[in-house]
Design brief:
Layout: E1 11-16, E2 34-35, E3 38-39, H1 40-49, E4 54-61, H2 66-73, E5 80-83, H3 88-97, E6 105-108, H4 118-129, E7 134-140, E8 145-148, E9 154-158, E10 164-166, E11 170-173, H5 174-182, H6 191-197, E12 203-206, H7 217-228, H8 231-237
Parallel strand pairs: 1-4, 1-6, 4-5, 7-12
Antiparallel strand pairs: 2-3, 6-11, 7-10, 7-11, 8-9
Helix pairs in contact: 5-6
Length: about 240
């Protein structure tokens, strides 16, 4: 059954899904690789659509796959699909341009974080709603971090207490994200980085272990295991 988005919601979610996913190995674009028999993008959109305040979802798909992605997502939720660009920033900008009048909060989410719980979507949106112009979900670093030189010699040990691993969805006041993309020069892989360059403070909220980024075959195997051990139901109900 197709999920119904909230017509009174104040959140639009952009999903740049045009990347090739080279590190995942040869095959279809990364967002269309299968996880437990379904594309990563389907898992991601299903969880986004389960977030109560989401009004609009816009997916930027590979140009050659736009029609196929529309057909793929039609049973999941009423999603707008637009052609993506060669770089992530181009895809986000294209998706942002397709957001209708209404939502004032815009989240940008990686399709590769296919198991992100709806609760994290709501947490990021709530932080923007409370007055922060830019919000990112983060996790503390647990490994020891070394700084090395070009010859792989250790220069020193970095204090990890001040470091965070950044996840998505990243949330923004709509006008702030639009201004950052309008002023963008060099392409960045992180929308918060574009906003930072405009001098906008970025606020952090706790991330989720389930929002892991599926980048390598090992990550895919881990996600398969999580789903096999019952994450599917727990994540959608969280």
């Amino acid at each position: 059954m197709t999920a119904q988005l909230n017509p009174r919601g104040d959140v639009a979610v952009l999903v740049p899904a045009a990347g090739a996913g080279v590190r995942l190995g040869p095959g279809r674009p990364k967002a269309l690789r299968l996880l437990a028999g379904e594309p990563l993008l389907v898992h991601a959109v299903r969880r986004l659509a389960a977030a109560a305040s989401v009004h609009t979802i816009v997916v930027a798909a590979p140009i050659a796959e736009v029609a196929a992605v529309r057909e793929l997502l039609a049973p999941i939720a009423p999603v707008t699909v637009v052609p993506g660009g060669a770089e992530r920033q181009e895809s986000v900008a294209a998706a942002l341009a397709a957001v209708p009048v209404g939502p004032d909060i815009v989240l940008v989410h990686d399709a590769a974080r296919a198991l992100t719980p709806p609760a994290l979507v709501e947490s990021v949106a709530a932080a923007v709603r409370s007055g922060h112009d830019a919000v990112i979900p983060v996790l503390p670093m647990v490994d020891t971090i070394k700084e090395v030189d070009a010859d792989e010699l250790v220069l020193g040990t970095v204090d990890r207490r001040a470091l965070r691993a950044v996840q998505t969805p990243q949330g923004f006041r709509r006008s702030v994200l639009a201004a950052a993309h309008a002023a963008a020069g060099d392409a960045l892989t992180d929308d918060a980085g574009l906003v930072e360059k405009q001098g906008v403070p970025v606020f952090c909220v706790p991330g989720s272990d389930h929002a892991l980024k599926i980048t390598r075959p090992f990550d895919l195997a881990l996600a398969e295991h999580l789903l096999a051990t019952g994450l599917r139901t727990r994540t959608l109900n969280s």
